[in-house]
UniProtKB/TrEMBL annotation:
Protein name: SP-RING-type domain-containing protein
Keywords: Metal-binding, Zinc, Zinc-finger
Stretches for region Disordered: 351-392
Organism of this sequence: Monilinia fructigena
Domain SP-RING-type: 239-336
Database matches in PROSITE patterns: ZF_SP_RING (PS51044)
Pfam families: zf-MIZ
This protein's record includes keyword Protein transport: no
Length: 403
């Protein structure tokens, strides 16, 4: 194949796809260990019940700002003896250079993460931290529990080689009591100083499928509280409102965003502002994990950073999920009526509800295709037309400035 040494005018070179197996061999020694689940209790007869999930549980060191004024910065955090007993450790098997880390239910791992923020940001809330991508400064050097700054050096895996900046695994360096991280940043350029950088030590816990299901069921929102919040939403105006829209009812979608069917266990995050829920088990089963290797007895646990709400992208970690008991009662009542095809309900100010009628276009689609278009097999989010296409609710608009 003949190709000129100098590219022709206007030639656009295709963007390279990061492949750490080829382009990051110099960091082969800091690869993530292969996770192997052990002591798996038989909680069910299927593979689903034996699946494990990783997520950020706690912060031994909460997000802390890295000051640019100092060349050396010291950050300290403490680990209890009880936590140390649950830490998963690495081991080498045979001649394989990739370490194996045995994990079980309630195993703990620790990692160091850095996130950038807008200038003059002084604090980084946890709810925003857990859904933010890792971003390291252009130049940074770190050690942990090192006496002479030459031991336990922490290497950064960057976007150039790995597709995105990655957190640093600290699990093998952790010790009981006080731990110390030294961060050195050379004098920054003006361009880099336009961003603030925060670092935090995250505690990663591993739980089994059924353990998360049971835990989220206990973390419930009482039906009475949900109804009370809806009543406040539909209650009369305050004296400070200039323009008020008074609605007689509130619409709540019942369809899961992955299956376009009604949920089995309705959950939403504590920070979610919407009242719609998604199905807990479907949400768990769609959390991505590394591919199962040949000869590996079970699938690896899920990735750590896969816990965003599918409706609003806010924090949806297992400890942050709540089961909506009002929607649980709605589903039970619809099941008694053999009416689980309902896509949405209308809730009135007194707490009563009724199925939301579907639009004429939805009925036409059903009659022509012979099936509900919400049962698509691609697992995508339900069409807005299928859930919100009903006749608009009559509202009364009151303009207090009107003469």
């Amino acid at each position: 194949m003949k190709r000129p040494i100098i590219p022709p005018l206007g030639f656009a070179h295709p963007q390279g796809i990061p492949d750490p197996d080829l382009n990051a061999l110099q960091q082969a020694h800091v690869r993530s260990p292969r996770l192997v689940t052990v002591d798996v209790p038989i909680l069910g007869g299927d593979d689903v019940s034996r699946r494990f999930y990783q997520f950020v549980k706690d912060f031994p060191m909460t997000p802390s700002k890295i000051p640019f004024e100092l060349t050396l910065n010291k950050f300290e955090f403490s680990i209890t003896s009880d936590s140390l007993q649950h830490i998963a450790r690495n081991q080498l098997i045979g001649t394989d250079p990739l370490p194996v880390r045995e994990v079980r239910s309630k195993s703990l791992q620790f990692r160091l993460k850095c996130v950038s923020a807008a200038p003059n940001t002084e604090a980084f809330p946890i709810s925003s931290w857990v859904v933010s991508d890792t971003v390291w400064p252009e130049m940074i050097f770190m050690t942990i529990n090192s006496n002479d700054y030459s031991q336990n050096v922490l290497e950064v895996r960057r976007k150039l080689h790995h597709g995105k900046d990655l957190p640093i695994d600290l699990t093998n360096y952790i010790r009981a009591g006080k731990n110390e991280i030294i961060v050195s940043i050379p004098r920054m350029t003006t361009e880099i100083k336009k961003r603030e950088y925060f670092i935090a030590v995250e505690e990663i816990e591993i739980l089994q499928h059924n353990e998360i299901i049971d835990m989220c069921k206990e973390q419930s929102i009482p039906a009475a509280k949900v109804v009370e919040e809806i009543q406040k939403k539909l209650s009369g105006p305050t004296e400070d409102d200039d323009l008020i829209i008074v609605a007689s009812d509130l619409s709540i979608d019942l369809t899961d965003p992955f299956t376009a069917r009604i949920f089995e266990i309705p959950v939403r995050g504590k920070n979610c502002l919407h009242r719609e829920c998604f199905d807990l088990e479907t949400f768990l089963l769609t959390r991505g994990s590394k591919l199962k290797r040949t000869g590996q007895p079970s699938r690896q646990p899920s990735m750590v950073d896969v816990w965003k709400c599918p409706l609003c992208s806010l924090d949806a970690r297992p400890y942050n999920l709540q089961c909506d008991q009002f929607l649980v009662s709605v589903r039970e009542e619809l099941q008694k009526q053999d009416n689980l095809d309902v896509k949405a309900i209308l809730v009135t100010a007194d707490g009563t509800w009724r199925p939301k009628p579907e639009s004429q276009s939805s009925h036409k689609r059903k009659s022509t295709t012979g099936e509900d278009d919400g049962d698509s097999v691609d697992g995508g989010r339900p069409s807005k037309k299928s859930t919100n296409g009903c006749k608009a609710t009559m509202v009364e608009i009151i303009d207090l400035d009107d003469d």
